[in-house]
Amino acid sequence: MLTQNLLVTNCYRWSLLGLLFVFSSCASYKHIPYFQDVDRSKITSEALNFTSPVIQPEDQLSINISSLTPETSAIFDNNIQVNVNNSGTPIFGYFVNQNGEITLPLIKTLKVSGMTTTQLSEVLVKKLVVSLKEPTVTVRILNFKVSVLGDVMRPNVYTVNAERITITDALSLAGDLNITADRQNVLLVTERNGVKEFIPIDLTSKEIFKSSYYYLTNNDLVYVQPARLKVSTIETQGSRNAALFVSAITAMITLAYLVFHK
């Protein structure tokens, strides 16, 4: 009789451990959803905090200049410089040197670092109006890129065709965070006003939308920290295995009861 009771007791213990495993796995889910503190019962709004990115040394600029004197403005097309990016693809544009300067026909050397593309366009129009009739200038950063590393689906360096990209855009380009990623411990490495900054980001909170770092700048790095406890298959394989384990233990308890209580 003592052996019977001991067997049943051990079966109950294993069953309890299995149930605890299931509940602990389910509890880990609370760390997975994004923006958990958003009030979904009503429409809310936040002011945008976007600021145009500024030109930095080693940027590659596309500068398109046209005017009512096309034979003069054409000299800018003939002086476009050519560089090659890491993939071997040619990049056409004006290179910003380490001093933050570019060299243009008619203007020669011009300090451009620290300006936005809009500001540079306005400066060029003012300088070119003495040589060109009604000049128009469009400036764009050609090598705007962000890096996404860590526990994401597709870590990589992503070239951006626009000057406006958010941290959520960058993570989407990388295929989103893996289920094992620590959403409360994302790190943004950025350089602003000549200072390297390391910014912790919590993706489970809506506060990221209010941050001045929500919009990324050229050459920003987003690093996603893996979670300490890998919850790789919380909703799938882990829970399925745990459920099978509990079912097996329950069957053993039932069998033991039937055998020893005949």
Set down the secondary structure blueprint.
Elements: H1 2-27, E1 60-66, H2 70-73, H3 75-78, E2 81-84, E3 90-95, E4 101-104, E5 108-111, H4 117-128, E6 136-141, E7 145-150, E8 156-159, H5 167-173, E9 181-192, E10 195-201, E11 220-226, H6 234-260
Parallel strand pairs: 7-11
Antiparallel strand pairs: 1-3, 1-6, 2-3, 4-5, 7-8, 9-10, 9-11
Helix pairs in contact: 1-6
Describe this structure in words.
The protein is an alpha+beta fold. The chain folds into 3 domains: 2-30 and 233-260; 34-40 and 144-226, Outer membrane lipoprotein wza domain like (Outer membrane lipoprotein wza fold like); 60-141, 2-Layer Sandwich (wza like fold), CATH 3.30.1950. 31% of the residues lie in helices and 26% in strands. The chain is built from 6 helices and 11 strands. A 5-stranded mixed β-sheet has the order 8-7-11-9-10, covered by helices on one side. The protein has a 4-stranded antiparallel β-sheet with strand order 2-3-1-6. Strands 4-5 form a two-stranded antiparallel ribbon. A hairpin with a 2-residue loop joins strand 9 (181-192) and strand 10 (195-201). Helix 1 (2-27) runs antiparallel to helix 6. The longest helix is centred in the C-terminal third of the chain and has 27 residues, at 234-260. The protein is elongated.
